[in-house]
Amino acid sequence: MGIKIKDFGKILTIVGVLILFTGIIYLFDRKLLLLGNTIFLTGLVLMIGLSDLKSFVFSSGRTKIFLIVMFGIVIMLIGYNVIGLVIELIGLLALLGIYLPVVIRFLHSIPLINNIFNISQLRSFSEWFSPDDRLPL
């Protein structure tokens, strides 16, 4: 049963990211951004698990970064969508940035997305974020 909940969490996380991108495309539509945030965070909790998420967030130095992410969401609730989204993305990048090389490596293994990363500007970007000698996992 735990595997099914994690799979559902992965689906919710992907759907939340897609709704966030849709909210950005529709000129930072507040309702879509908040819906995307809610679904993304719910999927993250289901995917990681509540106890593991607590230990990840409340470990050394990550509590302040998590509060920055929540502050970005509150700013979006107030009505300043662009500022709130920028604050939230900076916080998420600081919180989950250590896993970025793993994500880029995974994206390189997908055939169609690998062709996109072969564009010269994106190739240098992905090589800078994902060198072969420093993967965290």
UniProtKB/TrEMBL annotation:
InterPro entries, per the entry: Got1
UniProt entry keywords in alphabetical sequence: Membrane, Transmembrane, Transmembrane helix
Species the sequence originates in: Anaeramoeba flamelloides
Transmembrane parts of this sequence: 12-28, 34-53, 65-83, 89-107
Name this polypeptide is given: Golgi transport protein
Cell membrane listed as a keyword: no
Coiled coil segments of this chain: none
